[in-house]
Specification:
Number of strands: 4
Number of helices: 2
Oligomer: single chain
Radius of gyration: 14 Å
Structural class: alpha/beta
Strand order of the largest sheet: 2-3-1-4
Order of helices and strands: EHEEHE
């Protein structure tokens, strides 16, 4: 019997695009090669995400969808929006300096 991968939504909040890329490549090693937003980008998050099962053979496992916010305010807006849509994040990775 084949089980679907369990998908966990992850929100990464940091102002450095390199950190977003590290999280994306770690959690979605075989995922899409979408680039994170650039540090100087004034627009709202691109919400690009990568989703890759860690067990790609279809026998269940875990998969992550990674979304990015370049500021705390933007991350808070994304968290609120996800809550309203009843699509909460499993975890938020927040970098505070």
């Amino acid at each position: 019997m084949r089980r679907e991968a369990q998908v966990h939504r992850v929100l990464v909040i940091d102002d450095e695009s390199a950190f977003h890329e590290v999280c994306r490549s770690t959690l979605c090693p075989n995922g899409p090669s979408a680039s994170p937003p650039s540090a100087g980008d004034e627009t709202r998050s691109d919400n690009r995400s990568g989703t890759t099962p860690l067990r790609p053979n279809g026998d269940g496992g875990i998969a992550f969808t990674v979304q990015s916010a370049m500021s705390g305010q933007e991350g808070l807006e994304m968290l609120r929006s996800a809550f309203v849509r009843n699509e909460p994040y499993s975890v938020a990775i927040v970098v505070m300096r």
